[in-house]
Design goal:
The protein is α/β, with parallel strands linked by helices. It has two domains: 174 residues, Alpha-Beta Complex (Quinone Oxidoreductase, Chain A, domain 1); 124 residues, NAD(P)-binding Rossmann-like Domain (Rossmann fold), CATH 3.40.50.720. The chain has ten helices and 16 strands. The strands form three sheets. Strands 3, 5, 6, 7, 8, 15 and 16 form a seven-stranded mixed β-sheet that branches. Strands 11-10-9-12-13-14 form a six-stranded parallel β-sheet, sandwiched between helices. The protein has a three-stranded antiparallel β-sheet with strand order 2-1-4, with no helix packed on it. Helix 2 packs across helix 3, helix 2 packs across helix 9 and helix 5 packs parallel to helix 6. It is globular, with a radius of gyration of 20 Å. The two termini are 13 Å apart. GO terms for molecular function: mRNA 3'-UTR AU-rich region binding; NADPH binding; quinone reductase (NADPH) activity; zinc ion binding. This is Quinone oxidoreductase. Keywords: NADP, Oxidoreductase. It holds the Pfam family ADH_zinc_N.
Length: 325
């Protein structure tokens, strides 16, 4: 029987347990998928802890993977057994050797994208696509601030933004991470452990502020991020790595320069099949042309998912991390 990482109750990484599971035949609109590589993301931590509740427990977490279609259910016409596919979408269940998956959430992989890189980039890369091309559509000459610039999303955002002619300021936690971010398009890495990122961002922009802040950190950076923005700038809060943003008075946005604030998710931006396919194609295009490279800097056996979570939460990882079935 196939195995999966099963979460029976929310809490710490120790609650992620390697167990045998039963996977049946695909129903209408479904495929049975054998995973070849699985992506690790911070949203997996949110599901594990209960910050983002799952529909029910026990459950298998994980929203990103690549694999090979083993069988298709009734009504599935655009995928066949043997097709290489990837996804970054609910329903959760990626931490498994084999699973059932809605066919309309899968994207067929082009020949130039291998399974490992697909699993490493679908969620992070499509996140970068909607952030840069739809939430705030960056243009050549813009200056932006990217928090966690050496992380999985951050490295892709830096490269993609640089490809579009954007000046990139990024925050990182160490000199080594600063060098990594710089090598991937970040013009001005700020080591936040010894530098005040607000002061640095203002100095780098001559006091004008940045057009947009992309913030996946949350509580620790949110208020400072508002101070980095130019008047009528856009604050994009898309993650809570340090904890949820505390409540605040909306009037602070007007006091700091008529700022815009949004809290987007990839799931909303790819809810329609057409948007999902367009986002994936845009990602594949910049990767295939070499404008964006995807760094797989950590690999763990799937059965060691608990350790992968510990390392992710301790900020010991950079770039993308894979769980290997």
């Amino acid at each position: 029987m196939p195995h999966a990482i099963v979460l029976s109750e929310t809490g710490g990484p120790e609650n992620l347990r390697w167990q045998e599971v039963t996977v049946g035949e695909p129903g209408p609109g479904q495929v049975r998928l054998r995973h070849t590589a699985i992506g690790l993301n911070f949203i997996d931590v949110y599901h594990r802890t209960g910050l983002y509740p799952l529909p029910s427990l026990p459950a298998v977490i994980g929203l990103e993977a690549a694999g090979i279609v083993e069988a298709v259910g009734p009504g599935v016409s655009d995928l066949t057994a043997g097709t290489r596919v990837a996804y970054a979408s609910p329903p959760a269940g990626a931490y498994a050797e084999v699973r059932l998956m809605p066919a309309d959430r899968l994207v067929a992989l082009p020949d130039g994208i291998d399974d490992a890189h697909a699993a490493a980039m679908m969620l992070k890369g499509m996140t970068a696509e909607y952030l840069l091309c739809r939430t705030y559509k960056v243009k050549a000459g813009d200056t932006i601030l990217v928090h966690a610039a050496s992380g999985g999303v951050g490295l892709i955002v830096c490269q993609w933004a640089k490809h579009l002619g954007v000046q990139v300021i990024g925050t990182v936690g160490s000199d080594a991470k600063a060098e990594l971010a710089r090598a991937h398009g970040c013009d001005h890495p700020i080591v936040y452990t010894r530098e005040n990122f607000v002061d640095q961002a203002k100095a780098l922009t001559g006091g004008a502020g940045v057009a947009v802040v992309y913030d996946s950190v949350g509580k620790d950076t949110f208020m400072g991020s508002l101070d980095c923005l130019a008047p009528m700038g856009m604050m994009v809060s898309f993650g809570n790595a340090s904890g949820a943003v505390p409540s605040f008075e909306p009037g602070i946005l007007s006091a700091k320069g008529s700022l815009f604030l949004t809290r987007p998710t990839l799931m909303t931006y790819t809810a329609k099949r057409a948007d999902l396919v367009a986002s994936a194609r845009a990602l594949f295009e910049v990767v295939l042309k070499g404008a964006v490279t995807v760094e797989i800097n950590q690999r763990y056996p799937l059965r060691d998912a608990a350790q992968a979570h510990r390392d992710l939460e301790a900020r010991k990882t950079t770039g993308s991390t894979l769980l290997m079935p």
